[in-house]
Write a structure and sequence with these properties.
The chain folds into 2 domains: about 1-175, Rossmann fold (3-Layer(aba) Sandwich), CATH 3.40.50.11930; about 185-360, Glycogen Phosphorylase B (Rossmann fold, 3-Layer(aba) Sandwich). The longest helix has 14 residues, at about 100-115. The protein is about 40% helix and about 15% strand. It has a 7-stranded parallel β-sheet, with helices on both faces. The termini are close together. It has 14 helices and 13 strands.
C-alpha cells in the first residue's frame, strides 16, 4: 500500500511533526510512505514562539517533500498535483486547529473529485483550547469529505460525532500511542542531574510548550503548599513560553519560589528530551482544558508517573492511584496533597510497575495494526 501524509515534518518542529514522523516510520516498515510537508507552517506575525525550525540532531530519516504553505492559496493546487502524481492509496492528515482548515478543505475536496485516494483524519482537537471565530464551520469545510476519522480520546470522539453525525460509523476511537523515539542514557542523565543541582532531592517536571491552557500558573501557585511539606523539592520546567511570560515571572516573584525552580525557557531538542524525564520523579500536567496529551504518553514511554488535572481525555490514560494521580481542575490544595502523597507514600515504584505492564496497550505497533484493520 502507498500511504501519504500531509502535515508538518522536519525541519519544522513540534509535537504534531514528531507524531507524523513516528507514524510514517512505523507504516514504512510494511508500506511505501511519503510525507508532503509544509514549506512554512505559520506566518511570523502569528507565531507566538521564538522560531519554527527544529535544530535537533536526532531525526527520523523519511521521504519528505515540502509542498504546502497553508496560508498561501497559490500552493494549494501544486500540492494537489504532487499528491495526485505520487498516487497514494491513502492520505493521512492530522487536524488540530482551524487555521489549516481552508488549505485542507480545498485539497481534500479536489482529491476526492479527481482521484480515488482515501482520506483519513487523525483528529487531535475539535473543541479547541483557544476560541476560533467560525471554528465549527471551518472544521466542517476542512474535514467534511474525509473517509475516516481517528480520535484518541472519548471527549474528541463525542465532539467529532456531534459535528459529523452522518459519519458516525467511520469515526473510530483508538488511543494516543507512546513515544518510543527518545532513548534514555543513564550516564548522561546523572551528569545532567548533577549539573542542575537536582541530586538528593525530589523533582517534579513540567514539560512542553507553555501555553495558558496548560496551567503552569496553577502549579506555581501550589508550590508554597508543597514546599511546606517537602522543603527540598525542586520544580523543573522545560519548554518554550508561547505569549506573555510576565504572569509566570510575577507569580514566582510574589511567592518567592525562584530558588526551588530550574527553568529552561526554550525548545528542547530531541536528543535532550530524555534527560528531563530521567531526572524527574513525576510529571505534573495541571491543564485547564485538554483532549489528550502527548506529554502523558511521552512520560509513560520513559516510565515516569504523571499527576494531572482531571480534564478531557487525561483521565482515560492516567488511572488514579494506579499509574499516577488525578486532581480536580484548578484545585491547588488537592494538587499539593497528591504531590506530597506521591513522595511520602513512595508511590513511584508502584506507578512505574503499572506503566510498564500496560505499555503494549499503547504501542505504535498496536495503533498501526488497528488502522490497517479499519482499511
Amino acid at each position: 500500500m502507498k500511504i501519504a501524509f500531509l502535515g508538518p515534518a522536519y525541519p519544522l518542529r513540534g509535537g504534531i511533526a514528531q507524531f507524523i514522523a513516528i507514524m510514517a516510520k512505523k507504516f514504512g516498515e510494511k508500506h511505501e510512505v511519503k510525507i508532503f510537508s509544509f514549506i512554512k507552517q505559520y506566518p511570523k506575525i502569528l507565531f507566538p514562539g521564538k522560531e519554527q525550525i527544529d535544530k535537533s540532531e536526532l531525526q527520523i530519516p523519511l521521504n519528505i517533500e515540502a509542498v504546502l504553505t497553508p496560508y498561501n492559496p497559490f500552493t494549494f493546487f501544486p500540492t494537489i498535483k504532487k499528491i495526485q502524481k505520487w498516487q497514494p492509496d491513502l492520505l493521512i492528515i492530522k487536524y488540530w486547529i482551524p487555521f489549516f482548515a481552508p488549505a485542507f478543505g480545498v485539497i481534500i475536496r479536489m482529491l476526492k473529485i479527481f482521484t480515488n485516494i482515501k482520506i483519513m483524519i487523525i483528529v487531535d482537537n475539535i473543541d479547541f483550547h483557544e476560541k476560533w471565530i467560525l471554528g465549527e464551520f471551518l472544521t466542517k469545510f476542512a474535514l467534511g469529505k474525509s473517509d475516516y476519522f481517528v480520535t484518541m480520546s472519548d471527549s474528541v470522539q463525542k465532539s467529532t460525532i456531534k459535528i459529523f453525525p452522518n459519519k458516525t460509523k467511520n469515526i473510530i476511537k483508538l488511543f494516543h500511542p507512546n513515544y518510543d523515539f527518545y532513548q534514555t542514557n543513564e550516564t548522561n542523565s546523572q551528569i545532567f542531574k548533577k549539573k542542575l543541582n537536582l541530586e538528593n532531592c525530589p523533582v517534579i517536571l513540567f514539560f512542553g510548550y507553555i501555553k495558558p491552557y496548560k496551567g503552569l500558573d496553577i502549579l506555581l501557585k501550589s508550590m508554597p503548599l508543597i514546599l511546606a511539606k517537602l522543603p527540598n523539592l525542586k520544580l523543573l520546567i522545560a519548554g518554550e513560553i508561547y505569549g506573555d511570560d510576565s504572569i509566570y515571572k510575577s507569580i514566582i516573584k510574589e511567592l518567592n519560589i525562584g530558588k526551588h525552580l530550574v527553568f529552561f525557557d526554550n525548545y528542547i531538542a530531541n536528543e535532550e528530551v530524555h534527560n528531563f524525564f530521567d531526572v524527574a520523579d513525576v510529571v505534573v500536567l495541571p491543564y485547564k482544558t485538554a483532549t489528550q496529551s502527548g506529554i502523558t504518553q511521552l512520560a509513560f514511554s520513559m516510565n515516569t508517573p504523571v499527576i494531572a488535572s482531571d480534564v478531557g481525555g487525561l483521565g482515560e490514560v492516567v488511572i488514579h492511584a494506579e499509574n499516577g494521580f488525578l486532581f480536580e481542575n484548578g484545585n491547588i490544595s488537592q494538587l499539593s496533597d497528591y504531590i506530597y502523597r506521591f513522595f511520602n507514600e513512595s508511590k513511584k515504584e508502584k506507578f512505574v510497575d503499572k506503566i510498564i505492564s500496560e505499555k503494549d496497550k499503547f504501542s505504535w505497533d498496536s495503533f498501526i495494526e488497528k488502522i490497517e484493520n479499519i482499511l
